[in-house]
Specification:
With 93 residues, this protein is an all-alpha fold. The chain is built from 4 helices and no strands.
Length: 93
């Protein structure tokens, strides 16, 4: 195996790990939402519950987002760190 292919495998591997961490973080965040927020979001989403809306929001968009994060994961990491720092500074004030 040459160095170029090794770099591609390591780069994509890091991207997949970053995408998994982001997905798990988003899942944990939805678990911590209050019942009021969940019911409000459900009420809003009922208006748009068609087949195509469900297909796009539940399948296509998450897959495309995962692929995009796997390809440009350094940007996703930087944005995640910035978001974390902003939330941290907001809690301190």
């Amino acid at each position: 195996m040459n160095n170029g292919m090794l770099f591609v495998y390591v780069y994509l591997g890091c991207g997949i790990v970053c995408a998994a961490v982001i997905a798990i973080g988003a899942w944990i965040e939805t678990l911590s939402e209050s019942k009021f927020v969940r019911e409000g979001m459900t009420a809003i989403n009922r208006q748009h519950r068609g087949f195509w809306y469900h297909l796009m929001s539940e399948r296509v968009i998450p897959v495309l987002t995962t692929i995009l994060i796997a390809l440009v994961w350094p940007i996703a990491v930087i944005m995640g760190i910035q978001s974390w720092l902003e939330r941290r500074s907001a809690r301190q004030h």
